[in-house]
C-alpha cells in the first residue's frame, strides 16, 4: 500500500514539474520574441545613422552662414544706434 502512495506522490510531483517547466518555456519564448524585436529595431536605427556625418557637415555649414549673417546684422545695427 505504501508503494502506491509513493507512486501517486511521484506522479503528482512530475505533473507539477511539467506544468512549471511549461510556464517557464512560455516566458522564455516571450523574452526571445521581445529580444528579436529589440534587435530588429536596433538594426533599423543603425541604418538611419549612416547619413549622420553628411548631415552634420551640412549643419556646420549652415551654422557658419547664420553666424556670418548675425555678425553682419549686428554691425549694421551698431552703426544705426547712437553712441552713448
Walk me through what this model shows:
With 84 residues, the chain is mostly helical. It has one domain. It has helices spanning 2-48, 52-80. The chain is rod-shaped and about 115 Å long. It starts with a helix and ends with a helix.
How would you describe this structure in keywords?
single chain, 84 residues, mainly alpha, 2 helices
List the helices and strands and how they pair.
Elements: H1 2-48, H2 52-80
End-to-end Cα distance, whole Å, is 113 Å
Biggest sheet descriptor: none
Beta-strand percentage range = under 5%
Tally of separate helices: 2
Provide a short characterization of the protein structure.
This protein has helices at about 1-50, 50-80. It is an all-alpha fold and about 80 residues long.
Amino acid at each position: 500500500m505504501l508503494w502506491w502512495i509513493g507512486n501517486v506522490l511521484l506522479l503528482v510531483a512530475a505533473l507539477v514539474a511539467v506544468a512549471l517547466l511549461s510556464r517557464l518555456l512560455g516566458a522564455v519564448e516571450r523574452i526571445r520574441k521581445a529580444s528579436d524585436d529589440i534587435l530588429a529595431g536596433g538594426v533599423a536605427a543603425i541604418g538611419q545613422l549612416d547619413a549622420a556625418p553628411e548631415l552634420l557637415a551640412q549643419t556646420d555649414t549652415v551654422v557658419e552662414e547664420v553666424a556670418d549673417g548675425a555678425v553682419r546684422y549686428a554691425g549694421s545695427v551698431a552703426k544705426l544706434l547712437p553712441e552713448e
